[in-house]
Amino acid sequence: MAKVKFPLKMADEAQVRNLEELREHFDLASVLGYYDSGRLVEWLTDRYYEDEAEKISVLDSSAPDFKKCLCDILGAAYVADDLDMADIAGKNERRERLKQFTADDKILAAVDRVAFSQEELADLLDENVKEIYLCGESFSIPLKREQITYIGVNKPIVNISAATIVDFESKGIVFKDIEFCESYAKLLTDKAQAEANEARVDKFLADEAKKIARSACFVGEYDGKFYVAPNDTVYRVNKDGTEMIEILKCSEDTGNRVQVDSGWLYTQINRKKMKRICLYDMHEPSMELTLKDERTYHYSVKGNWYYGIAENLDKKTYRQNDKLVKINLKTGEHLDLFKPNIRDDYLHDNISELSIVGDSLFFLHCPPPHSTRNICKVSAGKLERQILFSGEDIKSVFVTEDTIYFIRCRDFHSNSILMSVDLNGQNLKEVKNLGKSSYYNIWLHDGYLYNMEREPSDDDDIEYAKFKMSREPINGGERKFIIDDIRSYWLISLCIVGDSLFVKTTNESESDEDADSYTITQYSLDGKKIRSYS
Questions:
Q1: What are the residues whose beta carbons fall under 8 Å from the beta carbon of 133, sequence distance 6 or more?
Q2: Do 459 and 525 have their domain in common?
Q3: Which of 92, 219, 426, 509 is a good FRET partner for 68, with 20 to 30 A between their CA atoms?
């Protein structure tokens, strides 16, 4: 059987099969590579260029005129160069090593851009190489080096040090023929599972929610599970759409006082007791906390502290003596935060928009006779409130980590002004003139002001109110309505969680305390409706 004769591949991709073609497409670097591997002599011998093969086989590659002599033997012109035989020998050695993993000519030709180790990868990155082949067991990829393509030769493991999924597309980082490390692969699997389950969640909630009370509403989300609560029952809805589990029952007269915070679910089971349930370990015993005050209204939970309003009625004088309290959920310790000087100051009716920042509590207080509204602060260890700002025309308050924003507006015919003051009541500023609009309920998020505006109506017979949602940049920019028509007997609340906007309304002409049915509607931040929980 005749021996298969291999051609020599030159830099211009030409496959040369005789000396004439070699001289026409001559490339010294390629020829030196074939010389070092012994394939040049073999190529000449196979074609019976015996004289040239014999002369080349006795050349001394360390001689000063070696490369000129080689060119003379092959009949090619020699041009002075800086090619080093040691580098060429090293390149041939790397190519032979690479052949153990691939026969792809494209990859073999790119042997200078192949990393066999983390150290070689670092060298290629330092040289600003934009396309790198990875041939090894595993490699750690620096996320700060952008606009780079990594191609696996032997399906190497790529280690990504990230707690969340990385937006490689925005960084210009491309991966081909690799496997991600176990921790990052789990992030991708979890995301894919969540996206696959999202469509099933909609149908599941629509079908299964009908089986529980009409007043069920969305109260939180933790670890891929939704929590919904009718007036007397709390359910956990698995996000994979497989089951709806009853978590607990509470007394009907507590209303819908349920909150999810940091992996715990808090609820009042009656007027005198609270319960805390661990959501990340349902086998851990729940904890009940007895409230020493007659009736405590559940406002908010943060960390191990419960903040609420204790409603106390003096049974001898029948005078109201409410107070704002803070209760340690582990020890049961009660701390009084604020006691009003005015008797019959019904705090549960006169305090609103309670916010917790650090170790301070902020709220809007409207003491009798309700002509003045005070933005107040109560700091840790102090029983006295600090009035940060006072006025008759304060409509809505929102507290961030370092600033208090509020709306000032006398009536529907006056301009609404967005004001700000720091957490100590200093540096009062007018942020923006909002024009003649009704700012009913505001939320600030990522530099934008979201507002639920109630539309005025001259029709006394109408049974519901109409609202519109607007969005506008805080520091200048056009105000746009993102939701045009929300109908409700009474608007309860507006909040933003993550990248979703939640609006809670009532379906009957009742107050929040006595409403027969609620609806929680979830929107994207640009006003697109996602789902409703009724």
A1: 107, 110, 113, 114, 115, 151, 152, 153
A2: yes
A3: 92
164 Cβ contact partners less than 8 Å away, ≥ 6 residues apart: 187
Residues 345, 410 share a domain: no
Which pLDDT value is given to residue 254? 45
User: Which of 64, 98, 132 is at the close of a domain?
Assistant: 98
- Per-residue CA distances from 494 to 67, 286, 436, 451 (Å): 81, 30, 21, 8
Report yes or no: 396 and 353 within 8 Å, Cβ to Cβ.
yes
User: Could you list the residue range(s) of the whole structural domain that residue 62 is in?
Assistant: 1-98
Q: How far apart are CA 476 and CA 500, in angstroms?
A: 23
44 contacts 57 by C-beta, under 8 angstroms: no
pLDDT of 251 higher than 80: no
210-221 pLDDT, tens digit each? 443 333 455 666
Scan for tokens 């939701």, then name that residue: 483
Q: Considering the domain boundaries, does residue 185 fall inside one? A: no
The answer to whether 465 and 490 are in contact (CB under 8 A) is yes
Q: What is the largest CA-CA distance in the chain?
A: 126
Tens of pLDDT, residues 93-142: 888 888 899 989 889 888 889 999 999 999 999 999 999 999 999 999 99
Partners of residue 260 on adjacent β-strands: 265
Residue with tokens 């933005």, as numbered in its chain: 375
Taking CA atoms, 216 is separated from 90, 207, 282, 506, in Å, by 72, 13, 22, 12
Residue 439 has pLDDT above 60, yes or no: no
